[in-house]
């Protein structure tokens, strides 16, 4: 398609540890188009953040992309030189990191860090860069942005630093923004303000947005497509309305059931997914979710389920969801 901007094919990223090889991302494929918002959900440790860092090639030294393709506007990102990567990061793809306190350099003022970004990627002079940076700080709800522009990161709260990171990502007019839990450190009012800003800027600039979050309410409000990850793999991918109205994977059912509801009884027990995620050094031989799945059958322990399309645009990786057999939510274990 003409509007395809980012394509990832069969991405595999492993961490080589003294105790073994952890398959953090194990065969992930997806596409992102101009103006589209892709939501990525899943438990901590499911590979969401590692996958997003692969897109901009910012991996820790022990991690390595061992297979797959990453293409931005048809260009092979994995073949980029250091010079090309510097242009790619920030100008083409910007990232809002999860931990704001480690994303800003503590020895430089906030304004200097923002202006450097603008002068490198947008070719602005110092005065113009300062004006744009202050406006960006104002747009994300930072009070008295002129004073915050002159502050050091350690003089700001965690929530304020998070807003600075968001402002830095937005002011370069990148074609793709990867937001890794962008509102974690913010209060509810500012969360809504920042998400609304992201949505408005996306419409204005037709930028693509990859939103990594645990908040399924935010996914419903913000996203066009949802990708559910578990233990380094995609277990379900669908348009947002299709996934919420007709989820197909038992793990997705567990995530949706564990979401608190304001309409429920005040003292009702919060539902959880029993068990713990698998050791990523031991995955890749069966369904990674089988030990926590109430619907598991012997085949689930014997081979890895393929990601197949059961409805238009709705893909699921489950041995018990096929064109011939449809598992229904709430069936007894081993029920057919």
TrEMBL record:
InterPro entries membership: AAA+_ATPase (IPR003593), ABC_Ni/Peptide_Import (IPR050388), ABC_transporter-like_ATP-bd (IPR003439), ABC_transporter-like_CS (IPR017871), Oligopep_ABC_C (IPR013563), P-loop_NTPase (IPR027417)
Membrane topology recorded in Swiss-Prot or TrEMBL: Peripheral membrane protein
Sequence intervals crossing the membrane: none
Residues in ABC transporter domain copies: 6-256
Subcellular location: Cell membrane
Sorted UniProt keywords: ATP-binding, Cell inner membrane, Cell membrane, Membrane, Nucleotide-binding, Translocase, Transport
GO cellular component, one term: plasma membrane
Protein name: ABC transporter ATP-binding protein
Originating organism: Candidatus Flavonifractor merdigallinarum
